[in-house]
Amino acid sequence: MVVSAETLTCIDVADASAGRFGPRAAQVLDAWAEFRAWAAEAALDPAADGKPFALDELDAPSPEPRQTFAIGLNYQDHADESGLAYPETPPTFTKWVGSFAGPVGELRLPAETVDWEAELVVVIGARAEGVAAADAWSYVAGLTVGQDYSERTLQLSGPAPQFSLGKSYVGFAPQGPWLVTPDELADPTSLAIECRVNGETVQKSKTDRLIFSIPALIERLSAVLPLLPGDVIFTGTPAGVGGARKPPRFLHVGDVVETTIEGIGQLRQVCVASDSPRS
Fold first, then answer.
1. Are residues 46 and 148 in the same domain?
2. Is the peptide bond before 177 cis (omega within 30 degrees of 0)?
3. In this predicted model, what pLDDT tens digit does every residue of 89-130 receive, in sequence order?
4. pTM of the complete model beyond 0.90
5. Do both 166 and 48 map to the same domain?
6. pLDDT computed for residue 82 by the predictor
C-alpha cells in the first residue's frame, strides 16, 4: 500500500504491480530491495488514483514477522527510574504476534496494572547475519511507532519474571500508522518521541538517547541469529512509565493513550474493559 497521508488515500501495491508484490505485507518485505526499485520507477499517485481509507482499518506495518525482538532498559533515564544499572548488553525479550494491532483502536485492560511504554520500532528489510553496525542501516526496511503495553503484575510475577507473557495480551503491541524508510527522515537517529494519557504528556524524549542505537542492536542481535525480512525490533522506552511513579499510575477504562514519533506519526488507543464487546 502506498499512502497519501494528507488525504488518507492509498494505492494497493498488489494491484499496481499486477501481482508482482503482495497482497500480504510479508510478501513485499521478503522482496524489499526489488520493491523499492520498482516503487522508485512506478508512476504512483495516491492523491489522484488512490482509494480512501480510515486509520482504524490499518494493521501493523509488518503484521506477520517471523521474529519479534523487544529491548529493555535502553534509555538511561528509564534505567534510572527503574533503579537498575545500565545494561552492558541489550536485555531482550519478545512480544508474540497475537498481541499485534494497528495504530488506532481499543486497548482491552485485562488487569488493574497495565502500563504504557512508547517505543520506536524497526522493521528489517533484508536477511541480516553477522552484520557490522556500520552497515546496519542498509538492512532496515523502515521505522514506525509502537507501544509496548505491559501488564506489570504478570510481567514481574514468579521466580523468573514473565516479561514476554506480560507484554503480549491481545492489542498490547499496536504499531503504525506507516512504515517510513530512513531516507525520508532528516535524521533517523534523533527523533522526538512522546506519549500522552488523556492529553497529559507522560513520556517525552529523543531516540538519540538510546543506550544501544539501532545499528548497535542489529549488530548484536544478528551476531546471535539471522534477522529476517519483516522481523520487528521494539527498541526500548524512555522514562515516564506509570509503574515507576510514586505512587504508581496505571491505565483505567476510558483513558486515551496517544503515542507520537517525529516524522512518522501517531498511535491512539482508547482503554476499555476486558469484557467489553469487540468493535
1. no
2. yes
3. 999 999 999 999 999 999 999 999 999 999 999 999 999 999
4. yes
5. no
6. 87
Total number of domains constituting the chain: 2
In a domain, 279, yes or no: no
The CATH number of the domain where 77 resides is what?
3.90.850.10
Residue 147: φ, ψ to 5°: -125, 130
Q: Nearest CA to 71 among 97, 90, 88, 85?
A: 90
The dihedral over CA atoms of 158, 91, 203, 133, expressed in degrees to the nearest 10, equals -170
Distance between CA atoms of 103 and 180, rounded to whole angstroms? 14
Classify burial at 186, counting beta carbons within 10 Å of its beta carbon; exposed 0-12, middle 13-18, buried 19 or more. exposed
pLDDT over 90 (residue 4)? no
Q: Which of 53, 73, 88 is the last residue of a domain?
A: 53
CB 160 within 8 A of CB 202: no
What does the block give as the cell for 205? 524524549
The residue segments making up the domain with residue 70 are 54-273
Q: Report the distance separating Cα 32 and Cα 26, nearest Å.
A: 10
Question: Is residue 44 domain-resident?
Answer: yes
Residues whose CB is less than 8 angstroms from the CB of residue 6 and which lie 6 or more positions away in sequence, other chains included: 47
Selection from 212, 237, 209, 215 nearest residue 227 by Cα: 215
